[in-house]
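Query protein
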Amino acid sequence: MKVAFLGLGNMGFPMAGHLAAGGHAVTVYNRTRSKAEAWTAKHEGRAAETPAEAAKGAEIVFACVGNDDDLRQVVLGDAGAFAGMASGTVFADHSTVSAGVARELAAIGADAGIAFLDAPISGGQNGAENGVLTVMVGGDDAVFERARPVIDCYARAVTLMGPVGAGQLTKMVNQMCCVGVIQGLAEGLAFAERAGLDARRVVEVISKGAAQSWQMDNRAGTMIEGSFDFGFAADWMRKDLGICLAEARQNGALLPLTALIDQQFARLRARGEGRLDNTALIRLLTKP
């Protein structure tokens, strides 16, 4: 299938690579041209100067960018993806953005006969590189079925959650649950240190019981080491929590723990540590 991929960050770069490895004809676009050139040097495919050029002739256009404004920038306007897409094609957005912008762009696309899927992802950079992401999708069932075999190139689970916006709402739940576990793990590890316990041994024991989690299995060791120069930045997680809290203000959901952890991420940023991995929350406890 002829496809385009917009946004070659830590996630998009390997995801687009899996599409090329899967035999699809891939055209990429990135705001920083050097990243697109690095991608074409590594993978079979070509780079375009604008999202519209990348999208021209593509059956499915994928995007993975930073926030609502970034998404609008690559989609709308004369140089945006919609300007290059034909009626009957599909735009699938893997960014983590608001459900509102997904619905907004879906409505604009519908006027031009372009179908829209909001399809945020979970699994981190390792998941993207290994092609085992979890994808939560909002959109029409028939459109989803068209796109799913292509998304399978970099996913281990692709699930339709409901109409447009449902994918982003599901990702919000994912992020709330992730930060709750990270904060709990940070407090537990910091407590173990203060109590004079061998934190690694503690993790070895409790990871075999009810406290076990993905975060414990994959991040406890680096948290104990104080290694945070990798992964999903604290600033990006705070951006995601802002989306969660804004949605909650609209639907009336109460998110006291999410709001509290959002303040913790704000403290990290104020300390100049916002680019560290989001598990750096533990630094607020071990290095206050």
Notes: The chain has 14 helices and nine strands. Residues 2-162 form a domain with the Rossmann fold fold (CATH 3.40.50.720). The mean pLDDT is 98. Residues 19 and 150 are 7 Å apart (CA to CA).
